[in-house]
């Protein structure tokens, strides 16, 4: 699923911390490890139960996403990251009416380029840009072309505490530019905490292979709507040619199992406490009335 202006920026923050872990893991014997330095891939699945819509009916979602990336070292303290990502979300709506116009599918594909630079032991910088097509419907539309970007600075106050801040940009989001911030704190060998958007988490590390986290997570994206989901409906403006911001707020428990130093599996489950579909140009909003459950599964492999 395509990320919003805020989630685009913070994906970079967590990528930096994951890369640090991956480099440490590379030193350990791994039967799954291939001789492809810097190459990684991920695949994810997520589904929600039916949530009631305030204007009537209900909706559930199922999301698949897949991506590959290649890290290219540039000197000893810098690297480029090139990635290709695809995601699609199916919306299953029951009892739709003129006040709940939702597309059946949301699709996105993007090519992303990032750069990270360690300045010294205290400061590091990261920036990136992504271009892709993000469309509501069964096919891609060239009018769904969008550009995302971010610029971030991280200050390491101590080996266990760091602060990050910057800006994110998305040409399809109703808020073109937004702030980004984050705090990562390693409390001790077992406990750590991260605060920010889209992810805030408290994590307990049981062993080298098991981690458990309480997570507050924001998911969603911005899409071009080529056709009105319910053309000819009265009592609202036509949504043909508009843009749709889709967002969910999730609270749950996440379990990560490190199959090997290069293969990790994450299972999460919890509640969707807020769900919104907001059209802009023209403005129109569809909002859920009550929460529902969700389950997600992700596999990450560093070759």
Protein model, in words:
By secondary structure, the chain is mainly β. It has one domain. 7% of the residues lie in helices and 62% in strands. It has one helix at 5-25, and strands at 39-48, 51-52, 58-73, 78-94, 105-118, 123-136, 145-158, 161-170, 177-186, 191-196, 199-205, 210-225, 242-260, 263-280, 284-287, 292-302. The chain has a 16-stranded mixed β-sheet that branches. The two termini are 23 Å apart. The model is unreliable at 5-27 (pLDDT under 50).
* Total domain units: 1
Overall 3D form = globular
Query: Which residues form runs of ≥5 with pLDDT under 50?
Result: 5-27
Number of helices: 1
The biggest beta sheet reads: 16 strands, mixed
**What is the subunit organization of this protein?**
single chain
Total strand count, please?
A: 16
Strand content: over 45%
The assigned structural class equals mainly beta
Radius of gyration: 20 Å
The whole-number mean of residue pLDDT values reads: 88
From the N-terminal CA to the C-terminal CA, the straight-line distance is: 23 Å
**Element order, helices and strands?**
HEEEEEEEEEEEEEEEE
Question: How much helicity do the residues have?
Answer: under 10%
Summarize the structure.
With 303 residues, the protein is mainly beta.
Write the layout of secondary structure elements.
Elements lengths: L4 H21 L13 E10 L2 E2 L5 E16 L4 E17 L10 E14 L4 E14 L8 E14 L2 E10 L6 E10 L4 E6 L2 E7 L4 E16 L16 E19 L2 E18 L3 E4 L4 E11 L1
Parallel strand pairs: 6-12
Antiparallel strand pairs: 1-3, 1-16, 2-3, 3-4, 4-5, 5-6, 6-7, 7-8, 8-9, 9-10, 10-11, 11-12, 12-13, 13-14, 14-15, 14-16
């Amino acid at each position: 699923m395509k990320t919003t202006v805020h989630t685009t920026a913070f994906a970079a923050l967590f990528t930096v911390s994951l890369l640090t872990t991956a480099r440490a893991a590379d030193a350990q014997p791994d039967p799954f490890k291939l001789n492809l330095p810097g190459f990684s891939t991920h695949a994810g699945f997520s589904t929600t139960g039916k949530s009631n819509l305030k204007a009537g009916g209900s909706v559930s979602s199922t999301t698949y996403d897949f991506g590959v990336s290649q890290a290219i070292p540039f000197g000893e303290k810098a690297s480029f990251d090139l990635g290709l990502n695809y995601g699609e979300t199916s919306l299953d709506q029951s009892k739709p009416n003129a006040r709940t116009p939702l597309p059946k599918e949301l699709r996105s594909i993007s090519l992303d380029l990032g750069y990270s630079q360690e300045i010294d032991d205290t400061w590091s910088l990261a920036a990136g840009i992504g271009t892709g097509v993000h469309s509501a419907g069964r096919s891609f539309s060239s009018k769904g072309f969008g550009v995302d970007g971010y610029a971030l600075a991280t200050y390491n106050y101590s080996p266990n505490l760091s602060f990050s801040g910057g800006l994110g940009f998305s040409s399809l989001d109703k808020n073109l530019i937004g702030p980004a911030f984050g705090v990562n704190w390693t409390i001790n060998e077992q406990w750590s905490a991260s605060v920010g958007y889209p992810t805030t988490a408290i994590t307990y590390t049981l062993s080298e292979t098991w981690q458990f986290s309480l997570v507050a997570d924001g998911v969603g994206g911005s899409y071009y709507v080529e056709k009105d989901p319910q053309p000819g409906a009265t009592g609202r403006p036509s949504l043909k040619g508009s843009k749709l911001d889709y967002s969910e707020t999730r609270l749950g428990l996440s379990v990560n199992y490190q199959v090997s130093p290069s293969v990790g599996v994450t299972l999460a489950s919890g509640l969707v406490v807020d769900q919104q579909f907001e059209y802009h140009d023209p403005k129109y909003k569809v909002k859920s009335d009550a929460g529902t459950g969700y389950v997600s599964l992700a596999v990450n492999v560093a070759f």
